[in-house]
Design goal:
heterodimer, A: 221 residues, alpha/beta, Rossmann fold, four-stranded parallel beta sheet, elongated, B: 307 residues, TIM Barrel, globular, binds iron/sulfur cluster
């Protein structure tokens, strides 16, 4: 899923400073699962904003909305009948959701209420970590199912670097060394032979480096 | 001859090679580089110039190399893949060779989190082994990765680093084999304090015949004090300093520890010279370059051969 995290309330308050009639919009997709932008978080953020503004003597009217997904046009369009009645929308979906609302409602200011983090997994209650950088050309079959682009701090294709110590990365003892993970896993699979292969320079054309991306499926059009 | 550098010639003639290292200054004043060059001139076959080591901004490696060259020292350019993509790396390879820099060490570089500019973008378009292959392709095939012709291929004697002590140990030799397969002409190792472990590593290296395919230069860094040894052991990732080593230097009074450090470095070099497959020594006297002459002399490495 796409994992996000709430922006500090002060930052959101400063964004909504010019407005007194708002929508706070959540999303039932990834951000609900990672507890950053679902219905519950919409309620929490809206209440916090109302209270803070009341304390400032400048009450704000907030409509709470949670769309099925902010990244699909049919759900986004459900907001059209009423969005014009409000001065701005604080979206707590991922960056794609915020932008999609902005694209659809050209006259309404869109304010991001969360920081979009990464494509990742739930490690345990309250802890998520990154797994994929969406490079567009998956190599996981060569690296024991562990991504060198994402899990190595230097995205090395021939790791580990000299900084790998006792399983952690040189940047931080809390960060597992991606290459230690790859080697452990190749070993478990009996495929250490894959380690000793030279890998050609990666083409980053399929990643964001090649420009904004698009997938077109003729079979579905 | 692949590049015709002095270092390449010394090794080709079968001599035990000596390299050292000079870190460029944190400023545009060339004087510190000139001062350091005095200590290495005529005492080494080539001298590494680091590339923004520990991710702290310094004078560029290419410029540092030119200052050494002007002072009569053969430079060995370090190049990390942290800061430049393949376009910039290739361009700098062409530029460096055009300026008479013919030794190259390919590295991935310390992560920028260590330096003053931890907010910097982390480039790593290619890794150090891919840089090595790239430099070799430009040199030997006279071709860019696109297949287009290089008009005047750059000439480099190409090496990379190896850390026999980093984790996981089981792939240390495989990793060296990868570097050899990629075309490493020489290898400079991490500082060696744990000689027993290094000797075991070299046995594994010899079992695979890797020592015959690349020239391994053993890294030695003199300890300035017991405090430095403890600090390095604790804070430098992948640094193996056995407790006995620390005990030995701590056993002498503080004011004699620096000399003890030099003596221990000399002792290590003499022992490393006996290890089959070690073709030279890389003396990294960090911000202590003035000790290089003494270490080289006491280790019987002077005068350097004229080839
Ligand atoms: S320690 Fe491991 S994860 Fe960290 S940069 Fe080095 S190889 Fe990559």
């Amino acid at each position: 899923m796409i994992v996000g995290n709430a922006k500090p309330i002060e930052e959101v308050l400063s964004m909504i400073e010019p407005f007194d009639k708002l929508i706070v919009a959540g999303c039932n997709g990834c951000v609900t699962v990672c507890r950053a932008g679902g219905e519950k978080e919409v309620q929490i953020l809206a209440s916090a904003l109302r209270l803070a503004r009341e304390a400032q003597g400048r009450p704000v009217e907030i409509r709470e909305v949670t769309l099925e997904r902010q990244c699909d046009p049919e759900y986004v369009e459900l907001m059209r009948p009423y969005v014009g009645d409000y001065q701005a929308v604080v979206s707590i979906a991922c960056g794609a959701g915020v932008q999609f609302l902005a694209e659809h409602f050209s006259k309404t200011p869109l304010l991001p209420g969360i920081n979009t983090g990464f494509i990742g997994v739930t490690e345990k209650q309250g802890e998520w970590s990154e797994r994929c950088q969406a490079c567009g050309d998956c190599v996981l079959h060569l690296t024991g199912g562990i991504c060198p682009v994402t899990r190595c701090s230097k995205s090395l294709f021939h790791g580990p670097c000299g900084g790998s110590v006792e399983g952690h990365c040189e940047i931080d003892k809390e960060v597992p060394c991606g290459w230690q993970l790859i080697i452990d896993r190749l070993k478990a699979l009996g495929r250490l032979d894959l380690y000793e292969k030279l890998r050609p320079m990666k083409s980053w054309k399929t990643s964001r480096d090649g420009g904004p991306r698009r997938i077109v499926r003729e079979d579905l059009i | 001859m692949k590049a015709g550098s002095n270092l390449e010639k010394v090794l080709a003639a079968g001599h035990f090679a000596v390299t050292a290292e000079c870190g460029p200054p944190r400023g545009a004043d060339p004087e510190p580089m000139r001062k350091k060059s005095v200590h290495v001139k005529d005492n080494v076959d080539a001298c590494n110039v680091t590339d923004n080591q520990t991710s702290v901004v310094r004078m560029s490696s290419i410029a540092g190399c030119l200052h050494l060259q002007a002072a009569g020292v053969e430079p060995l350019m370090q190049m990390v893949t942290r800061d430049r993509n393949r376009i910039a790396l290739q361009s700098d390879l062409l530029g460096a060779s055009s300026l008479g820099i013919h030794n190259l060490l390919c590295l991935s570089g310390d992560h920028q989190a260590f330096g003053d500019d931890s907010q910097a973008k982390n480039v790593h378009d290619i890794d150090s082994i891919q840089l090595l292959q790239l430099a070799k392709m430009l040199r030997d095939d006279g071709k860019f990765p696109s297949g287009k012709e290089v008009k005047g291929p750059p000439k480099f004697f190409i090496g990379c680093a190896a850390n026999p002590f980093a984790d996981p140990y089981e792939i240390r030799v495989s990793r060296l084999a990868l570097k050899v397969a990629a075309g490493a002409d020489f290898i400079q190792t991490q500082c060696i304090y744990n000689l027993e472990k290094f000797e075991r590593y070299m046995q594994d290296v010899r079992n695979r015949g890797l020592h015959e395919q690349t020239a391994i230069l053993a890294g030695v860094t003199p300890l300035k004090s017991a405090g430095m040894a403890k600090f390095m052991k604790k804070n430098v990732a992948g640094m193996d300093i056995p407790d006995e080593v620390i005990k030995r230097i701590a056993a002498v009074p503080k004011e004699e520890q620096a000399q003890k450090g030099i003596d221990m470095a000399v002792e290590a070099i003499l022992r490393l010279r006996q290890v089959e497959g070690v073709r030279g020594v890389h003396i990294m006297a960090i911000e202590w370059e003035r000790k290089v002459p003494e270490i080289a002399k006491k280790s019987g490495l002077l005068p350097r051969p004229q080839v």
